[in-house]
Each structure stands twice: as structure tokens, then as C-alpha cells.
Amino acid sequence: MDETVAEFIKRTILKIPMTEMMTILKAWDFLPENQLQTVNFRQRKESLVQDLVLLCENKRASLRDAALLDIIYTQFHQHQKVWDVFQMSKEPGEDVDLFDMEQFKSSFEKILRRALKNVTVSFRDAEENAVWIRIAWGTQYRKPNQYKPVFVVYYSQTPYVFTSFCHLKSNTPLLSQALTVASNHHKIVKMDLRSRYLDSLKAIVFKQYNQKFETHNSTMPLQENLELDMHMDSRIIHENRIEKERVQRVTQETFGDYPQPRLEFAQYKLETKFKSDFHGGILAERKEPLRCLIKFSSPHLLEALKSLAPAGIADAPLSPLLTCIPNKGMNYFKIRDK
Predict the structure, then answer these.
(1) Is cis: bond before 317, omega within 30 of 0?
(2) pTM for the full model?
(3) Distance separating alpha carbons of residues 26 and 22, to the nearest angstrom
(4) Which of 69, 90, 94, 145 is 20 to 30 A from 50, alpha carbon to alpha carbon?
């Protein structure tokens, strides 16, 4: 086994938490289970990694095997990446072709290799007719950098592609070309939608809101305790109860009963010309529009927005600019004068 492959496997295994080690190695399916049973998984991690790398060396692991292990690790830790969404389209009136996944993979890899000699492309099929693609970019004179790959997730027969951050921006047009040609589409555009949570992005673009999403923090339930101090004036109790019921009804109509897709932020760029009834002044003579950037951030932004009105922090209903995020499939907005 090549030294660079051994080092690549070693670094990947070192990233795997001990609690997930056996699960990921079994999913990799490179080392036989009877060999894994001979390994002491209770020893220090550095010693464990040495034993596992030695087993890989004895089995002559290839770069493709090592790349597959990296894909599996990333699938388990999707939220460590920032994912962008791209939408592809066909020509008007163009027929929908029968999709062949193997043909897609072959065409995709050929397009990249035809344009760039030093590139490593690896695939792993996933659930829901999806394929995970790992691309390690090189240059005409340098070998691919295996430690800064870009990951692509494509759901067959859909126009949507999810990609992790690409360190070499100059290769983005080539990646876009390979995706559109291999999937028999004509055009690809980047959507104004980004998150660390791939399942939530998928739910937004596929309109699958009524499902459970990965969350690491508990969120405030929408249902509030309506019991009030019995010593209060009954008219106040009645008015307060009616208002809380209205807020809850409006919030439910806006966000639904289901958990919200997980996004960490929403960004709004405002561009507007200065308007005044008074003539003259520095701003009145300004030709460039006034620009303002507002960013809302939270570990779980949509659930946080959903809880604002019931908590009494904001009036119900909230602004459509805040509540339209899932329906529009955007968390980057540009607001300009009409």
C-alpha cells in the first residue's frame, strides 16, 4: 500500500469518534468482520489506528478504498460541512429521459478527467436513489489534495444538487458542466440557500416539511400553559386567553405542527435610494443606493422564529420576509426598490 494512502487512511480513522468506530468500519466493508474481531478496540486510539492501518496495508488498500472511507465518515458527520444547493433545468419542451445511475457516474467522471488530469473521483450509492460523489482536485502539475475534497450529493431524476464548500473556485464551472451533462440537463444555477444540515435543505427543496430533522438542542414547544393566576381579574384572564389562542392559531397556520427544517441563519441585503420631500443635501444628491445588511442567526433559526410570538417577544403574524424562508427555498435575500 502506498505511503500516501496509508497516511490518508490513518488521518481519516483518527477523526472517527471511538463510539462510532465499529459502525463506520462495518459500513466501509473493507476489513472482514473476523479481522475486526481480533482488534482491541479498548486500547488507546493511537495504538488502535496503527493496528487498523496495518490490516489495511496487509490487504493492500487503494486510494479508492480510502476515499470511500472518507465518504462514509462525511455521511455520518454531514453537519461539519456547509452545503449549498444548485438547481438544474432542461430546455422548454425537452422530454424527460430515462435515468441510468451507472451511465451518470461514467459520464460525470469522464468530463472531469477530460478537462483535468489530476483529479480523484469516488462514488457511493445512498438511500432514495441518491449518489454521494467525492472529488479531490489537483492541477495540471500537482496531484489531487485528498484533504480538501468537495462532496456532491445528487438525487437521481431531480433537478437538485447539494455541494460542500469548494476550495478551488476556479473548478466550479467544470463541476457544474459535469453535473448538467451527466444528468441530461441544460442549465444549472446556485440557489440562495445554505445550511450545515443536509436533511433540512433536502426537505425544503423537496417540500418534505412534515418529518423529523436532526437537532442537537431542544426547542421551546409551541403549546403554552394557559393556566393563569386565579386571583387576577376574570376580564383580564378572558382577554389574555383569547389573545394567546389567537397567537397560537396564527403561529400554527404559519409554521404548521411539524418540526421546522434546521437552518442557522437568514441574511437580508437592502438596497434603496434616498427619498425625501426636501430638495438638496448630501444624501439627496447621492446616486449610489443606500445599502444595509441584516443577519438573523440561531442554532435553529426557524424554530426560534416560530417561538417568538407565543413567547410574547414579537407580534403575530411575523413578517413574511421571515416566514417565507421554507416556501421560497431561500435564506439569502436581496431587497431592492420596485
Answers:
(1) yes
(2) 0.85
(3) 6
(4) 145
Distance CA 75, CA 83 (A): 13
Residues 226-280 have pLDDT tens digits of 444 445 555 555 568 888 899 999 999 999 888 999 999 999 999 988 776 666 5
How far apart are the C-alpha atoms of 160 and 180, rounded to whole Å? 11
Burial of 310 (0-12, 13-18, 19+ CB in 10 A): buried
- 3-state SS of the chain is CCHHHHHHHHHHHHHCCHHHHHHHHHHHCCCCHHHHCCCCCCCCHHHHHHHHHHHHHHCCCCHHHHHHHHHHHHHHCHHHCCEEEEEEECCCCCCCCCCCHHHHHHHHHHHHHHHCCCEEEEEEEECCCEEEEEEEECCCCCCCCCCCCEEEEEECCCCEEEEECCCCHHHHHHHHHHHHHHCCCCEEEEEEEEECCHHHHHHHHCCCCCCCCCCCCCCCCCCCCCCCCCCCCHHHHHHHHHHHHHHHHHHHHHHCCCCCCCCCEEEEEEEECCCCCCCCCCCCCCCCCEEEEEEEECCCHHHHHHHHCCCCCCCCCCCHHHHCHHHHCCCEEEEECC
C-beta separation of 49 from 13 below 8 A: yes
Residue 28's closest CA among 77, 73, 62, 58? 73
Phi-psi region of 135 (alpha: psi -120 to 50; beta: other; left: phi over 0): beta
- Write 42-48 long-range contacts (CB < 8 A, 24+): 45/14, 45/18, 48/21
pLDDT digits (tens, 9 = 90+) for 36-62: 999 999 999 999 999 999 999 999 999
Among residues 128, 135, 115, the alpha carbon closest in space to that of 70 is found at 135
In the predicted model, is pLDDT for residue 210 greater than 80? no
